[in-house]
Amino acid sequence: MRFIGSSHLLLGYATLGVTAIDTNQQVPIQDSATKGCATACSDLAASYPKQLLIRNTTLYDDFIKTYWSKQQQDISPLCAFKPADANEVAVLVRLAKQTECPFAIRSGGHGMAASNVNDGISVSLENLNEITVSADKKTVNLGPGNIWSKVFETLEKDDIAVAGGRFTTVGVGGLITGGGISFFAPKMGWTCNTVVEYELVDPNGKILEVTKSSHPDLFWALCGAASNFGIVTRFTLETFPLPRGEIWGGMRISTEGEIPALLQASYNFGTKGVASDPEGAHILTLALHEGHKLGLAILSHANPESLGGEAPKVMKEFLDLPTIRDSTGVRTVNNLLTEMSYGELEPRRRKRSTATYRLDLELMHYTKDVCYEEFAKLSDIPNALTLCVFQIITKQQLEVSAKKGGNPLGLEPEDGPLLLLNTWFTWDDESFDARIEQAARIIVEKSVAFSKGAKRDVDYRYLNYAGEWQNVIASYGAKNLEKLAAVAEKYDAEGVIKTLRPAIFSLAGAPIS
């Protein structure tokens, strides 16, 4: 029995533009599903007229333009819904289930293939933007519609911080449910392991308060397995002191001749440096810019007050290298995020992929060479940005997360330190899509093959960096995949999420060959 009247069905066909189905759609939708979505969108428009955006309107077009990638902007949902609280999210879930209408969940809009859906409902959580610090300042409630720049800006007023994201516009929900890496990972662990409670709308439209004690199986599954178990409408995260919201950090750019030394510094930091000072973290990016090979070291230290006005000793190898640009110094987290996010607001086509290996210097050099070989093949593409990003998943990060209860990611402390690769491409003309896709795959495939030959391979794929073609959840290991499937069967026996959510990063595997 329907819980919302369907008297608006004819209005749906008239105003929502239900015509021929897009043959390039992300999720196959049959005629019955399209009709069901017309019904769902019409009912939402009747109940929440100010929160429902319909196709072929200015507000709808403006909303679509806010997606991070042009590929996401090219997807056309039948309508977009902006719920104001968990109850309205629950209404959406029950309605989508009744009408069999596919829906996608958007936090900040960076989910490359999972935050929008053709001919379905795009659910934007932007109005779920609570930031409430507890009286003792030890936890904070965060709505999934927040972006990290707003979170850090708010928390610095209370001299605290969380292990949040490193780009201004990344959404809280997507980062956490994908695992989450932060400037503070060595001492705080994965971001998802700093969650003490989730408010979750389950696949049946029921609102659950999920903690280690109330729903231990679901609490474990939500840490890194994306939105395969429902829609999180609130996260309660651990906080830690961070006076004035300040860290030491910045970007140092070096030319080609310094790249071998940068790789050595990165390797040394991961194998011994971070053990001596868990407040330090770094990202190493290899770029080809206007024919020039560049190495970008993004350095951070989470306790500038302990440095006595000096640069952190743990970063000495990096700091001793010549640069053409150096912005390191004491600054707010938000200020560093802004520098790292330069150009991120531009509407461009984007592609990424990922792999993980046991930290190995020879492998780093080999992957560097493969990256530059593939970058060179793309040098004729106008305004293309081609990057390979190296990050260290430290043993300390894995130890801290294990002590906090672990997660489904399939990584143990004895696996560390690990090297995480992220290929990153941005460009403008869709005619180059296939070449970019091929380059991303080749870099991953060749480096993984090398790592297997050197017995340094690790199956794990970081969800927040993965390409649409990568089978992320399966990379967590057969045992964890089986446990996740059991959790899904328990809380989603009817397969609502499996059936109606975009199939990217699902328990069933990658939908794109």
From TrEMBL:
Matches recorded under Gene3D superfamilies: 3.30.465.10
Q: Which UniProt keywords apply?
A: FAD, Flavoprotein, Oxidoreductase, Signal
> Which PROSITE patterns does its entry note?
FAD_PCMH
The entry sums up its family as follows:
Belongs to the oxygen-dependent FAD-linked oxidoreductase family.
What is the official name of this protein in its record?
FAD-binding PCMH-type domain-containing protein
Give yes or no: UniProt keyword Flavoprotein: yes
GO MF terms on file?
FAD binding; oxidoreductase activity
The segment(s) forming the FAD-binding PCMH-type domain are 73-242
- Any signal peptide, and if so, which residues? 1-20
Does this entry carry the keyword Thylakoid?
A: no
Database matches in Pfam families: FAD_binding_4
Q: Which domain of life is it from?
A: Eukaryota
